[in-house]
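[job 4471] stage=fold_predict status=RUNNING
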Amino acid sequence: MALAVTLVWRRRNEVGGQGPWWFLVWIAAGFLVSFSLITGLSIGLFILPIAAAVLIWAARRAPHLPEALGFVAGIVATALLVAVLGT
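[job 4471] inference complete, writing structure tokens
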């Protein structure tokens, strides 16, 4: 995750990677990372490489704050999914 933050910070002034499509990509990255952490040693180990790849790809392609806030939305989506399935 630190690598993604570094990539976003270095490339924040570049053109490209803006709009709702990239917001959805960041949501997917946030969902995958948080889901892999929640599931831990079961399926989380298999999801973690995919989550890391999506996170790094999103950070390289869409290093803008409005789109990157989708990462937080992805974490919230994971929390909502766990809350709904847990009841």
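[job 4471] summary: The CA atoms of residues 2 and 18 lie 22 Å apart.
[job 4471] exit 0
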